[in-house]
Amino acid sequence: MQEVSRDIFYQTIATWEDVPFCQTEGFVRMQSGDDASRVRYFLDEQIGCAAHVKRCLGRTMLMIDTECLKHKQTKPAVFSRFYEALRQTGVDMIELNSRRPYLADHEVGMRQAGFLRPIGSFSYELTNLIDLTQPLRFNENWRRNLKQSEALDLRLQRIDQPTEADIADLLQLYREMGEHKHLAMPFTAKQLRVLLSDTHFHLCFICQGKERLSAMIYHQVGTHAGLLYAANGNKANEVHAGFAMYQQLLTSLASEGVRTFDLEKMGASAHSTNAVFLFKQGIRGEMTPLCGEWAWYKRRWYGLGMYLVKKYLWKKQQA
């Protein structure tokens, strides 16, 4: 394994089989900003990642959001060799959150590299994969809402090159939803410009006449696509706009040859996030466990320290 420049990293993975959206240049730049020192790029012959550099507890940590694979079928030795080498880069902690569907070979390789599941889980480890090569199937609640929306002249609008007005409309819809659900804004206008300048990310709206009611940013790499952000404005629920947006978008993507759509972040729970889980579960797909979170700490107590930081300082919600 070697550390490389950003340009060499993206030139190398351009032809790889499995490059998750969270390793694309637009997403990494959105997360890291303009400070190049906040990201380090690592590669070997079959695996690579852009790793975000964090300072916690006076120590240096690498945070990785799903690694890139040259081949989808990758042996445990590939994972173990790569992550063993990462441990030798002089950092104190390494945390990985893999959104990839669960692979036994991945778990074997991570454990052989000295990684374990961290104390507490702060990410979703389940998703719903929709097979777009088959007719869409919905539960009774979805069928009822879609039927009610049919006579309301709801139209999908897909934006190829977003303007400042498009970004402003997205922010407004998210702001309206955030006020209703007590959600913080997850991005700024500047971050959205960076993200949407990457051709892997796309914006769409559901409109009634000229009024935009709901919005979505989705990612697409090859024949696989998935949800990134969705927002429903104040009027959306009255006309079932969220249901229409998913149904029309998935139908459109399927007609273009996209084979799978990942609904992302399926958080079954005993609190309010369960409503989102039930909504996404209404599109019949394959409930799929993910590889999830893995961690290595130079000192054992760092793991407990990071748990307390996430829970009480960063105030993350446990999954």
Mean pLDDT: 95
- What share of the residues lie within helices? 25-40%
Question: How much β-strand is present in the residues?
Answer: 25-35%
What is the correct CATH architecture of the largest domain?
3-Layer(aba) Sandwich
Order of helices and strands: EHHEEEEHEHEHEHHEEEHEHEH
CATH C-level of the largest domain: Alpha Beta
Q: Using the alpha-carbon principal axes, give the shape.
A: globular
* Main sheet properties: 13 strands, mixed
Number of distinct helices: 10
C-alpha Rg (nearest Å): 20 Å
The CATH topology of the largest domain is given as Aminopeptidase
Query: What distance separates the N and C termini?
Result: 33 Å
Outline the low-pLDDT stretches: none
Which class of secondary structure composition applies to the elements? Answer: alpha+beta
The strand count comes to 13
What is the count of distinct domains?
Answer: 2
CATH superfamily of the largest domain, please? Answer: Gcn5-related N-acetyltransferase (GNAT)
Structure characteristics:
13-stranded mixed sheet; 319 residues; Aminopeptidase; 10 helices; alpha+beta
Task: Provide a concise account of the structure shown.
The protein has helices at residues 6-13, 25-32, 76-86, 104-112, 140-149, 164-181, 189-196, 241-255, 274-281, 300-313; strands at 2-4, 39-43, 47-56, 59-65, 68-69, 93-101, 126-131, 154-159, 201-208, 211-221, 224-232, 260-262, 286-297. It has 319 residues and is α+β, with helices and mostly antiparallel strands. Strand 2 (39-43) and strand 3 form a beta hairpin.
What can you see in these coordinates?
The structure is a single chain. This protein is α+β, with helices and mostly antiparallel strands and 319 residues long. It folds into two domains: 2-122 and 290-313, Aminopeptidase, CATH 3.40.630.30; 133-258, Aminopeptidase (3-Layer(aba) Sandwich). The protein is built from ten helices and 13 strands. Strands 1, 2, 3, 4, 5, 6, 7, 8, 9, 10, 11, 12 and 13 form a 13-stranded mixed beta sheet that branches. The protein is globular. The mean pLDDT is 95.
